[in-house]
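Input sequence (191 aa), recorded before submission:
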Amino acid sequence: MMSQNSFINPFRYVAGTRALVIGLAGMLLTAIIAWNSKTHFDGVLDAHFGMEAPLSLFIIEGVISWLCAVVCFYVAGMTLTRSSVRIVDIAGTIAFARLPMIFVALVGFFVSGTPVNIEDIDTSFIVAGVVGMLFTIWMVTWMYQAYIISSNLKGAKGIISFIVTLIVAEVVSKLLFSLDYYDSFNQLNIN
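Predicted structure, token format:
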């Protein structure tokens, strides 16, 4: 039976392969909703609204964001702990931790697009940003729990390494997404 603590740390109840299957299904659902709401997850922590693209791009964005986090957290865990760190635990719990992004994708239905100028910012964009940030904080909370449980890191070492690794994962994902992938995707004509 799950308690209120499962909203903060669901990984006492789900991990490994089960978390991976649920997380990947959630990532696919998020991509489908994001495709319909035009919400892009082009970074481990990023969401942007308003650009139409094929469904395959939304799926690839989710996979790249997830893989960047998985690789970075796995390397950090392997480097910083003497405990056994299983890739399936990191991959599964990080995929599961992305479930709150479903709600960010739903928020995209209420946003007309990303403002180009400050004058274009309207109330719906501000509300969507605040709501999206709350769900992103929830995801980061779960990612932290996923990392410390999967790598058996505690205390300051766990907190500091999580923050540094999350920043590295975000930078790596943004570098990958900066490779002009929208234009490359359109040139490949993938639908």
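Checked by second reader. Confidence is low (pLDDT under 50) at residues 187-191.
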